[in-house]
Every structure is written in C-alpha cells, then in structure tokens.
Amino acid sequence: MKSSPKQPASPQNPALSTSHLDFPVVGIGASAGGLEAICTLFRQMPSDCGMAFVVVLHLSPDHQSVADRIIQDTTQMPVRQVTEPVPIERNHIYVISPANRLSTNDGYLRVTPANRRRGDHVAIDLFFRDLADVHKDHAFCVVLSGTGADGAVGLSRIKEQGGVTLAQTPDDAQYDSMPRAAIETGMVDLVLPAAEMPQKLLELWRNARQVRLPEIEDDTLPPALGTRVGDAQASEPMLEEILLQLRSNTGHDFQHYKRATVLRRIERRLHVTGQADLAAYLHYLEQHPAESRALLADMLIGVTNFFRDREAFEALERHVLPQLVCERDPAEGADEIRVWSAGCSTGEEAYSLAMLVCEQLALEQRSHKVQVFATDLDERAIGIARSGSYPEAIVTDVPPSRLRQFFVKEDQHYRVRKEVREKVLFARHNLLSDPPFSQIDLIVCRNLLIYLDREVQRDILQMFHFALRPGGYLFLGSSESADVANELFAPVDKRNRIFRALDASNTGRRSGRQLPGTSAAGRPQEALAKAKPGRKPSFADLHYRALARRMPPSLIVDIDGNILHMSEGVGRFLQVAGGEPSRSLLNLVLPPLRLALRSTLFQARQGTEAVTSRPVDLAETMGKLQVEITVQPYRDDLSGSDCLLVVFEERAPDPSLPMPGVIRQTDSMVLHNLERELQRTRLQLQETIEQSEVSSEELTASNEEMQAINEELRSASEELETSKEELQSINEELLTVNYELKNKVEETDKVNDYLSNLIACTEIATVFVDRNLHIRWFTPRATDLFNMLPVDTGRSLLDITHRLDYPALADDARAVAQGEAIIEREIGGQGDHWYLARLLPYRSSEQKIDGTVLTFIDISSSHAAEERVRLGEERLSKQLAETQSTSHMKDEFFAVMSHELKHPLNLIQLNAEILRRLPSLRNISAASKAVGTICDAVTSQARIIDDLLDVARIRTGKLKLKTGPVDLLALLQGIHDVVVSEQRPCPVRLELPADTLPVMIEGDVTRLEQIIWNLLNNALKFSPAGNEIRLVLSHDEDHARLQVIDHGVGLSHDSLEHIFDLFSQATPQQASHSREGLGIGLSLVRQLVEAHGGTVRAKSPGLGLGCTFEVTLPLCDTQLPQREQGSEPLSEGRLNGIRVLLVDDSVEVLAVMQELLEMESATVNAFSKPREALDAAAGEEYDIILSDIGMPVMDGHALIKALRGYVHLRHTPAIALTGYGASADQYKSRQSGFDRHLSKPVGYDELVEAIEALSGSVPY
C-alpha cells in the first residue's frame, strides 16, 4: 500500500501555523540565468492578477543584490527586497535578500541569517517546504533556470499539500539543471516556457475559484480554494464512477480511502485540468486515458524526508532501539533485527531507520545482522529508493555527522553508502492484498492509516500484529492511533505514537484479517451498505444487484483457486473453519461439494470451455437439494490475468423418481448394498481428502519456505540491481575512458605530426639504440651519416658503416647506457663537415635507462665561423697589444711632459712666494704686483697643463671620479669668497635660493670646482672691467641648475654650435683677446658635466651682448657628513718646531723650498740624493717627510718604502711632491707609503696647510 499522501498532522516545524489568506502565493525559485526568465515572466503578468509572488534566488552573501530593481523595471507591481518581517499582499512581489534564508508563516514573510554548509544551495527547497506547510493548496511554485537541484524536494512537498507545480522547459532555460531535476521527480504538473507561465497561472487561479465540490467533513484538512456545494452523499454515485474508472484503467482500488482525502486529490486535478465539478471531470477522465495515470500519481503522492518529525524519531531512539538490540541473543539464534517500513515512499524513512539501528549497534558494540524491509505500492518511488541518491537539500534534515558517516557526495547529490544500502530490501507491496512479512521486530507505518476507513485500519493493525514477534514494536504517525485494536497493542509512548504488541496468550492472538470485501455474514454488499448507511448507491451498483438477484450464486477465483470476488448468496455454499483464515475456495466450500469442485476445476484448467459437474445431493445440510457446479475459464484483457468463474446452480430432485416407501424389497437390498458401497467409497474418499489436506499443509509449509527463499531471492535481486547499477556506472566510466582515449589518440596523432615536422625542421640526425646497441629508430637525416635503411631496425649499430671520424662511438654509447653523464664531442666527417655528437641516456616512462640517444648536429658552418673568429681574435689580440703599448707610451709621455712642464713652474712659484715674503719688498707695490703676475701666470699655465691631461684621460677613459655627497651651495659660496678676496677687475655677484638649504648632488668635488672655475674664469677673461658677472643657483625637485651670466663680448650663432669643441674659440674672442688658453676649457667642462650625469649649454643674444652658460646636475638625498672646522688663519711661524726631511733631485727647488719652510720656523734637513737622505734618517727623528717622486737612482716610491723600514719613521707622515698628477699616480703614492700626494706646481699655502694637517695628526 502506498504511504501517501504521507502528510503529517503537525508541520515539520511546530512553530508554523496555517495561513488564512484567500489568494494564492506563488514561490519562484531560480539560480544562474534565472533573472532573465523571471523578467520574462513578469513582463507578461498583469499587475492586477490577484496573486502574490515570492522570488528566491541564489545570491552571493558578499555582494549587495539589485535583483529587486531589475525586476521592478519589468512590472508595475510593487517589488520589495525582504530584510524584515512583512505581510504578504496580493499583487506584490517579494525578493529574497543576500545572506538570508526566507521563510513564511501565518501570512508573513520573515528572514533569518542563512546557515549554508559546504557550499550547498538549499534556500529554494527550504522556502518551498514552508510555503507548502503554511499555504497548503493556496501555494503555487515555479522552478526556473539554474544549476544544481535546489527546489526539487520542496516542489514535491507543495504537490503533496495540494498546490500546483510548474517548471520551465529545459530547452527554454539558460541553465537547465534545476528545471530538469524538478521534472525528474515526477511531481511537476506543468512544463512550460517562461513566457507562457503567466497565462497558465491566471488560468489555474481562475479554475480554482470555479471548482464546485461537495462539503468535506474532515477537520484534519484545511479549507479548499473551490466552492463547496451540497453534501457528500449527493455526489457519491459520481465519485464511485470516478473511482471505478480509475480502477478499470490502473488496477488500483481506492474504495477504502476516506472520501475527504479522495475529494481533495480530485480537486487538485480539477485545478490543473480546468474542470468545474465531478461530472465534468468524469467526462474528461473518460476522454483522456492518460489522466487516469495523473490522478493515480496524485493519489499516490508520497513525500517524506529523513528523520521526519524529529521528536518522534528521538523517542524511538530512547525507548525502542536499545531494547531491540539488547533483547537479541545470538546464543538463542536471535541475532537478526528485522524492521518493516510499510509505505516507505522514496526510501528516506527506511534509510533513517537503518542508520539509527547501525548507530545503536555501534553504541552497544553488537554485531547483529540488520534487515530492513521497505515496501510501497508506487514502483516509481521504489526505483528512487533503490538508487539511494538524494539531492543536496537533505543537508537540512540529516545532521552533519550522519551525513559524513552514511553518505557520499556525488556532484549535486548525496548517495547512501553501500554498507547501509545493503541492509535495506525494497519491494512493491499492497497492504490490503499481499501477505505480510513475519517475525518482525519493529513496524513503521506513519501517516497512512489516517487516509483509510476505520474498518480497514483495524484489518491492517491485525495484520501488523500477526507480522510482529511477540513484544514487537509499532511506530505510527503523529495523527494515528492503535485504539481501534487496543486489545492487540499497548502504548509505550502515546504522545509519539509508539506501541508494543501484546502477547498472544493474553489477547487471543489473531493470525490474520478478514478477506477483503467480506463480512462475517458472508454478504459483502449488505455489510458495505450497513457500514455506509448514508451513501446513495450508483446505477452501476443497482445494475449489479439486479443481475445478482437473477443470476445463480458465483465467484471469481484465480488460476490457483484463491477467491478474488464473490456474488450475493454464494456464502450458502461456503463455510469458515477455525484456525488461520484462507482464501482457497477448496478449503472454504462445503465438504459434500469439495470433490466435485476439485474435479471440475481441474478439467476447466485443462481447456478453454466451461465444465459442469454432476449434481451433488445436499440433503444432509440444506434439505432435499441438488447442486451443479459450472467452471468457466476467463481471461481479463484489462488486467491481463487468467481467472475462473465458478457458478453454483441449484436443482430440485426429479419427481419422476419413485418415493422410498414404494421401492420394492429387492430394490431396497440392492440400494442398501449400493449405499453401503458408497459409504465405503466416501470413507476412502474422506481418507484421501484428509491425506490431501495433510499434503496441502506440507505444501503450505513448503510455500512458507519458498516465501523465505523468495525474500532471499529478492535480496539477491536487489544486489543484482545494485551490481547492474555498478556495471552501468563502470560502463559509463569505460565510455568516458574510451572517449578520453580517443582524445588522447587524436592528441598523440597531433603530437606525432608536430614531432615529424619538428624533426624535419631541425634536420638533426638522431639514432635510438638499446643497451646492446641495437637500432630502435632513427630520423631521416641519420641516413646521411649512417648507411641505414628502415629494415635495419633491430640490427646492431656496430654492423652499420658510417661517414664519421668517431672511433669511440661504440664505447661512448655503452658508457651512456650504463648511466654515465651526457657525452658531447665535436667530430669530423667526410670533406669539410663537422658534427656535434651528443649522446644522452634513453629513459623509459619508469625513469629507467634503457638505451642511448645519439644526435649529430651539423656544425660545419659554425665550425668554419669559429675558425674565422679565432684567427680574427688572434689579429685583434695582436693589435690590442700594440694599441696598449702605444697607449702606455702615450701615458708615459703625458706623465713625463707634465713633470717636465710643472717642474719649472713649481720653481717659479716657490721663488715668487719667497719674494712675496721678503720684508724688503712687502711695501713696494710694483714688486707685489710683479709677484702676483708671476703667480697668476704659473696658475694659468698649470691649469692649461691639467686641462690637457684631463682631456687626454677622458678620451682614453682613464679619468676616474671620486664621487660623494657635495653641497653645491656651499661650494659656490667658497669659490665666490675666493674671487671676492682676489679683487678681480669684474665684480662677481652670487644669487642663491631663498631657502638657503643645502643643494646636494652626487659628484667629485675637485671636478665640480674645476667646472665652476673654468666657466667663471672664462667669463672674467672675456668681460670688460667693471661689468658684473652673476653666479645664479636654483633647483627643482630633481635637478640643480647653475648659471654663469656675463655681459662680455658674446657669441655669434655660428660659434654657439662649436663652442664646446676641443681647441675651439669664438672668432671675436680671438680677435679681441690674447690667447691665454688653447680652447680646451669649455670642452673639458662639457665632458666633466656629462660624466656627472648632467648637461651644459651656452646661450647668447649675439655679439657684444654677453653669454650665459647653464649647467644642470641631478640632485641626491644624501646628506653631507660633518667636517671639522678649519684651522686658524695662516701667519708667520706656522711650522714652528716641526722637523722636516726634504728630498728633491733639483737643487734649485730644494733650496727655495727649504728657505720657505724655514721662514715658517720649521727645522729642515734637505737632501738632493735619496741615498744620503736615507742614511741621515737612520738616526734622526722627523715630524714630516717631503719627497719628490721622479728622481734618479732611487725614486720617491723606493725611498719612502725604505724609510718605512725604520721603526721610528714607520708612522711619520709623508707627502709626495711631483709633477705626476694622474689618479693612478696618486694611488701608487698611497700604496708606496705616502699619506698625501701634491701635484706641482705646489702653492705655498697648500703645502703649509698639508704639513700642519699631517703633523697635527689630522686624517687625510
């Protein structure tokens, strides 16, 4: 029997209460691509449709939703996003808000924070459940485009509660997973494109208001949408005709269903088909045979879920399961727990029971066998249950721990684990006709009995009592009770409807129930009339009863003689014996008729014609009466089953036979003998019959054994079904693997093509050999080197001749195959060919070395090129050596020239300093002027020499900058102070930034001073006396800018282009000024500025209008380190008490320098020969050592090294005085042991300051 309509008396959520809204509420569920379908639906929906709409979408919890605004653009109905409790109003649209769960209760919509687990989408299912439980048949639902299966379970609940379900046509949906999952449940009433749904919803609502049905007298069902007219009695004939039509077309009889339930299911079909009343629907049913199946599906709706009514299942865990487990004693053979889930629908209830029993066994540490029988009338539901696959929505019913323990996640579904599935046996079973299971410990039949008549409820409870072991448990639905059979069951937990079977010794335990359609009096129709006194019979019943009065008593039996149906009056020929009830006609017929009936049944089974028995005298039981039995074989085309019609015809005795009193004596004796013989025959026959009955009992026992075997076969069939499913799954996997393999083959073909083209393009000769040097494969280019053909595969490489000069080929190949590293060699070939031979290990897929790969790359052209390069390198090396030699000679020349030029300048400079300090000449202005002129000339000539040397160093790349942070502002201020102190003929004005903050650049301070002095001296040289010269410093974020502005002779436009060229001077300058330079100063300026990463440019309005030289240098963030304050101003006697060792091979320089130092009160020991100075220093202490570098016999470097050998002179400061001023010369001086390097000509003040700094231990 089907479990359904499996509607709980109380909602799943006890807090829910039924809504009293008088208009339908349409729930719309959608996901990916659904918003477009929703907009299409509402564009066609009138704003005064009279319905309310609730849209549930899968929204991201991390983003704000604008779905309500998008929908509002398509309709005039108000659209609202639900963020707080709101009443449901007709002609309104409500949209779920992100990160929330939407629910409905008592006419309101409410939101609660969503509690999604593991990425499951169940928002639509949850809302559809609430919608169904609250609004009942006022609930409509629509499933639109989306991924996953959300909505399929909740949709089924809506149909169960009487609502109407719609789904979008998969071809019309952008994503068809959700609509397809809903359609596959078999619970969708209408499948339509989104654009056609508005009109269909309007039709459904209109049809619902036009329906006219009798008043339903059942408080357990909510008020219906349609109009109630008349009473149920008036509509009974029409209802009987509908049920008769349903039984004729489907073979299912719903006569025992409560009329309220039947009417409610028919009413739902009236809504869908658009019929107004029962008469119209009956006509529609007759005209549309497929509607019978649709009505049957509605009558058999069985919607359930895991652990439905959780409180009741918890009571089952507390009160029943521990007892079942503990009472099983394997020692007594009771090691199996047998559970029967009657009306299991799609299997959730059966699997819930299996899980609970498994948990209890684990808790008690028992290993009993568990067998759960799960039965239902609906083959479709049984098929779903057997698959054990359920949508994601079960996460709301199954706790996470059980979900992990008993289920496996597969895509959008959860599948019951194999160990649980094997404990459940599913079978189709009708509680009203099929025999029950036996020796059951627990029967679960929830929410089924409430839909059946009270008499049938008692019959089923009696059958359950028979099926249970003594003391077994019965678990009913929340609105059901065992009160109709309280002598059979005692309550264990009455609130949760758990009962226990009473022992047979106390209750007169029944073995079964009465036959369907019969009563104790044997007159089923009279009993039915008494049971239903207010029900008006239909015309079919009148016709049936009229025929029954005219026709002899009869009955229908199946091919085995079991009674299927009986007419009126046939009970006269039957009797019910004590013991277990039976449906066998041979067991129930009167004993005098049994032999004739058995013979007639046997003959009728052998053919197709009617068979009539001899008349049987029933004088002993029914007076003087004879009965003839006619059996007619009959095949029902509608059901496809074979049956037998058994007719009992009564006959009066023949009056022509003589009366017993008139029979003659002889005849009496004959008759007596015959009667005695007949009595013996009857006794023998009776004995045969008894033996037959014993055999029948044995056969019955065998039948029971066969039933047990049948159960085992069913289990085996279930296993075979599972194996079949596994094989199908394996087959699908094989198909998938085959498809993947096909793709791999195609990919391999492509890769092979790529490799072929690659090999052809690279033109590399390659040979693959195994560990024994047998050829495995080779490229086409390999045949240019080896005399191989394709048929040579497998031959030894040693047997193949080749064109290579490679005697070690075999040894190298073997060495690589043994695991050595890659071998590369350049080998020769025929002619001028050269090859790069590269031998690599051949590695298998297991990374094992299984041979050698030999590749030969033609490097003839590169080898020839390398040879040409080698020869070229030799020539270049030779030329480089010659160039370096020439450069070295040039450097030597520059050094000697510098020394030779600076030596006389140094002598002139020193003598001029002596003249300046002679007391007799201090007051003679002409003498002072002459000395100044001499000093200026010396300085100018020294600058020219230095500039020439710097230009040479720059051009040869030997000028090295000693960079560091330099404050350009301070540098300019220092130069300006010097210029002012010298009282030049042209005043120089310094213009600095207003903030006077340091202007830091990264550079060589000496070279920067050289740049500024060159530009400033150039301006002073070419400006008339009295004209002001401006030094302007500015900066921006990245660069410092220095401008030297004069009002001198200016430059022509042609001169500007070449002013920075070496040895270049403007023509006006050449004409109006003496040549005090060689035209190298500005060229040196540009090269030094560019070496610092800067730029320099010249601007002039024209001849006679002055010039502006602008230098731009990059700024830096480095701060200038703190420096100690300078010494006090120079004065006479600055070297008082300092002992000086002075060495110079020039006697003139030696004498002048000695005189100058002694003027400053120094004690000087002067030597022109280094050897003499070295010998003298052996016993003398000195505070400072001054030495020339370029001296004969022993130069200054050798001298200082020798002096450092004396312990007392090891740390004495030493100054090198030389005309060699290159950075390399300075570095060499420091390496030799000098502390400072001064280039000639040396200024007097510079020399004295150096001596003071070193003798005072000031670090250089």
Automatic annotation (TrEMBL):
<feature type="active site">
    <location>
        <position position="31"/>
    </location>
</feature>
<dbReference type="Pfam" id="PF00512">
    <property type="entry name" value="HisKA"/>
</dbReference>
<feature type="domain" description="Histidine kinase">
    <location>
        <begin position="896"/>
        <end position="1117"/>
    </location>
</feature>
<dbReference type="InterPro" id="IPR035909">
    <property type="entry name" value="CheB_C"/>
</dbReference>
<keyword id="KW-0949">S-adenosyl-L-methionine</keyword>
<feature type="domain" description="CheR-type methyltransferase">
    <location>
        <begin position="227"/>
        <end position="481"/>
    </location>
</feature>
<dbReference type="InterPro" id="IPR036097">
    <property type="entry name" value="HisK_dim/P_sf"/>
</dbReference>
<keyword id="KW-0489">Methyltransferase</keyword>
<dbReference type="InterPro" id="IPR003661">
    <property type="entry name" value="HisK_dim/P_dom"/>
</dbReference>
<dbReference type="InterPro" id="IPR036890">
    <property type="entry name" value="HATPase_C_sf"/>
</dbReference>
<dbReference type="InterPro" id="IPR022642">
    <property type="entry name" value="CheR_C"/>
</dbReference>
<dbReference type="GO" id="GO:0032259">
    <property type="term" value="P:methylation"/>
</dbReference>
<dbReference type="GO" id="GO:0008983">
    <property type="term" value="F:protein-glutamate O-methyltransferase activity"/>
</dbReference>
<dbReference type="InterPro" id="IPR000780">
    <property type="entry name" value="CheR_MeTrfase"/>
</dbReference>
<feature type="modified residue" description="4-aspartylphosphate">
    <location>
        <position position="1188"/>
    </location>
</feature>
<dbReference type="InterPro" id="IPR050903">
    <property type="entry name" value="Bact_Chemotaxis_MeTrfase"/>
</dbReference>
<feature type="active site">
    <location>
        <position position="58"/>
    </location>
</feature>
<dbReference type="GO" id="GO:0000155">
    <property type="term" value="F:phosphorelay sensor kinase activity"/>
</dbReference>
<protein>
    <submittedName>
        <fullName>Chemotaxis protein</fullName>
    </submittedName>
</protein>
<dbReference type="InterPro" id="IPR000673">
    <property type="entry name" value="Sig_transdc_resp-reg_Me-estase"/>
</dbReference>
<dbReference type="Pfam" id="PF03705">
    <property type="entry name" value="CheR_N"/>
</dbReference>
<feature type="active site">
    <location>
        <position position="150"/>
    </location>
</feature>
<dbReference type="InterPro" id="IPR035965">
    <property type="entry name" value="PAS-like_dom_sf"/>
</dbReference>
<dbReference type="InterPro" id="IPR022641">
    <property type="entry name" value="CheR_N"/>
</dbReference>
<dbReference type="GO" id="GO:0008984">
    <property type="term" value="F:protein-glutamate methylesterase activity"/>
</dbReference>
<dbReference type="Pfam" id="PF01339">
    <property type="entry name" value="CheB_methylest"/>
</dbReference>
<keyword id="KW-0378">Hydrolase</keyword>
<keyword id="KW-0145">Chemotaxis</keyword>
<keyword id="KW-0808">Transferase</keyword>
<feature type="domain" description="CheB-type methylesterase">
    <location>
        <begin position="25"/>
        <end position="203"/>
    </location>
</feature>
<dbReference type="InterPro" id="IPR029063">
    <property type="entry name" value="SAM-dependent_MTases_sf"/>
</dbReference>
<keyword id="KW-0597">Phosphoprotein</keyword>
<dbReference type="GO" id="GO:0006935">
    <property type="term" value="P:chemotaxis"/>
</dbReference>
<dbReference type="Pfam" id="PF01739">
    <property type="entry name" value="CheR"/>
</dbReference>
<dbReference type="GO" id="GO:0005737">
    <property type="term" value="C:cytoplasm"/>
</dbReference>
<dbReference type="InterPro" id="IPR005467">
    <property type="entry name" value="His_kinase_dom"/>
</dbReference>
<dbReference type="Pfam" id="PF13596">
    <property type="entry name" value="PAS_10"/>
</dbReference>
<dbReference type="InterPro" id="IPR003594">
    <property type="entry name" value="HATPase_dom"/>
</dbReference>
<dbReference type="InterPro" id="IPR000014">
    <property type="entry name" value="PAS"/>
</dbReference>
<dbReference type="InterPro" id="IPR001789">
    <property type="entry name" value="Sig_transdc_resp-reg_receiver"/>
</dbReference>
<feature type="region of interest" description="Disordered">
    <location>
        <begin position="507"/>
        <end position="535"/>
    </location>
</feature>
<dbReference type="InterPro" id="IPR036804">
    <property type="entry name" value="CheR_N_sf"/>
</dbReference>
